[in-house]
Specification:
By secondary structure, this protein is of the alpha/beta class. It is built from 14 helices and 12 strands. It has 3 domains: about 100 residues, Arc Repressor Mutant, subunit A (Orthogonal Bundle); about 100 residues, 3-Layer(aba) Sandwich (D-Maltodextrin-Binding Protein, domain 2), CATH 3.40.190.10; about 90 residues, D-Maltodextrin-Binding Protein, domain 2. The strands form 4 sheets. Strands 4-3-5-12-6 form a 5-stranded mixed β-sheet. A 3-stranded antiparallel β-sheet has the order 10-7-11. It has a two-stranded antiparallel sheet with strand order 1-2.
Length: about 300
Amino acid sequence: MVISHNCFARIRKMPFKNESLDWTALKLFMEVADSRTLALAASRTGVSAPTLHRRMADLESALKMELFERGADGYRLTAKGRELRALMDDAAIAMVKIDEWRAGQTALPPLRIACGPWTSMFIGDMGAALAEGLKGRPLRLLIGTTHADLTRRQADIGIRNLAPSQLGLAGQRVAHVAYAVYGAPDLAAQAAAVGLDQAYADLPWIALDVERPTASSRFLSSSLAGPPVATSDHPMPLLNLARSGAGLCLLPCFIGDRTSGLRRVGEPLPALRQEQWFVTADTRRHDPPIRAGLGVLKRLWREHRAVFAGLA
């Protein structure tokens, strides 16, 4: 239906008090007119029948005309009521569009965090605390995009394992991340019994195989005597394979130590100790949404510092 450009002008010419339109009353008028009974209109609007009765009387008083014929069978429109109802068809479409526009203006945009798959799993576990801290702002995780261009607003916050070197970025080191060997209890016991050097040669291993080789994948590739028995390009299958006893694997301690069905073999590996940084565009780090998001993330990382370091 095309909105008539004259519909609002024609409604405005009606004699409302103070020359203003009561849009709520007009919307209730439409419901009563279409329902024909106050009881049905009340069930559709959630407004009580007595209140609807009063609002229709006030509307008629404001317009100085009768809109309804009230009888035992309900509310029937008068000639003036039918005229107003016809005008409201076009006006109702416009009001819906205005309501949708207002909702779009007031909706909070999501806080976009670009991070690696392991970090995304940790953030997922902290979802309730994050949601509370963000106070109604949606969260969007951009997984595997740790190199998203923050200066071009591809993300709001990046969580990386290196200090930012690109011009226009600001960063803060928030944790040291430890890595260790993990496996199902029986396999982990075997590895502990023979030692890691022998385990690299004699026991089955599984590995994360991603597009950009990581420090842990390079370390494992150089340590194994042969190829892994299985690989995955996503963390969840890797964890499931490890829990099933298919092989040993290297994991960040904040994942391995908190995953049921896995046991750590020995201490964290010094060669794989990494830093973790929160990175933002320098020109945006003081924007209220980003500052608030960083505050929530920093608090969570502070509370779990020992987990990241493998000391929990």
